[in-house]
Amino acid sequence: MATLRRVANKRIFGQTFFLSTGGILTPQGSLLASIPNALYENQPNWAGGQVICRSLCDIIPPDAVGAGLPVAGWDGLWDGSTFSASNRFITNDVEASIPPFKVRSNRYPNGWGDGSSPVRIDGWERLGATAIEYDKVYQFYRFRINGIPGIAGQDQSQLTTYENQPVGTKFGFTCSGGPKASLAPNQNMVFLEPGHPGGSLIDTTCRCVMKQQGPASGNRGTTNTINNGASFITVGPYHTWESIWEINVIGSPNGRYAQWIDGVQTEDLSDIVWRDAGHPDGFYTWSGDMTWGGSGGFVKTRDDYIHFNHVYFWGVPS
After folding, report:
1. pLDDT in tens, 199-256
2. Does 84 lie in the same domain as 18?
3. CA 188, CA 28: separation in Å to the nearest integer?
């Protein structure tokens, strides 16, 4: 057995992980089993809850859009897309706090036009028309915007700023309503908005909000009504984003969305319409379709990156 050495900065929520010269090991020898539940600080204690999917962000998922395939060491099914292959790669990061201390780096390249995504990775328990619906979902991301030195092509003076689009950058979306064979009908999107709307698009902060688009919900943008100042994400260091999604009764605007950033709650809405009679499905897929902004003809003038260290979804099936 390899000799283990303690790594001081690999301590998360009171549990120490270990690094061997031959690779990443943990005291239990099982990477997923060793991740403490306390990591998911605001995960509810819902009866009947189960893991939907979980990514360790140490492998690029296979190109199998709409179908999904298992990934070694992960939970659930995942897929990628061929159009984004040059803009997604795995990076070792000594500051990553969750094993195996790697990140999936998503690149927004210089010259990229707005309204489209250079990266797409989808995940769920099953994907496509047979996706399992959930009435309640908890989501967790561990991520950083830029901040990792030494990535080829990135100006090292730009590690603590990010070039956004006026609408913002789509930070993944959760589908509801259906039909399940499509991601298009009702997209419930997490957005990284410009930190100072109307100001410079190159900034040191972004504001995290949820927006809806689709026939069931209409086009609704939310604001952070609790601790609004905590909704601003600083470019460079790691952050934790958590959210709770609870489906509405068809015909009633009583769905719930709650959000925490770095453990501080910034939103709790209880009047959300996630579905209607014509689109009755529960939550059924997460898509990491990371669109840069909306329309407007803006073009990126530099390379930027969003690095994911850990993605986890848990919930209660319908």
Report:
1. 889 999 999 999 998 888 888 877 767 887 788 999 999 999 999 999 999 999 999 9
2. no
3. 37
Flag whether 43 is in a domain: no
* Domain coverage including residue 294: 49-317
Quickly tell me which residue has 């690149």 as its tokens. Answer: 107
Dihedral sign for Cα atoms in the order 110, 113, 115, 116 = negative
Range from 11-25, 155-169, 226-240, 291-305 carrying the lowest mean pLDDT: 11-25
The answer for residues whose C-beta is within 8 angstroms of residue 180's C-beta and 6 or more apart is 128, 129, 130, 131, 133, 281, 284, 285
Structure tokens at 73: 């060491």
Q: Is the pTM of this model over 0.85?
A: yes
Question: Which residue type occupies 72?
Answer: A
**What are the backbone angles phi and psi of residue 129, rounded to the nearest 5°?**
-65, -20
What tokens appear for 257 in the block? 């969305």
Q: How many CB atoms lie within 10 A of CB 108?
A: 23
To which H or E segment does residue 23 belong?
strand 23-25
Q: Is 176 exposed, middle or buried (0-12, 13-18, 19+ CB in 10 A)?
A: buried
Find all residues with CB under 8 Å of 187, minimum gap 6, and list them: 173, 175, 212, 213, 214, 287
Q: Compute the distance between CA of residue 188 and CA of residue 197 in angstroms, rounded to an integer.
A: 21
Query: What is the pLDDT at residue 267?
Result: 92
Residues 8 and 88 in one domain: no
Q: How many domains does the chain have?
A: 2
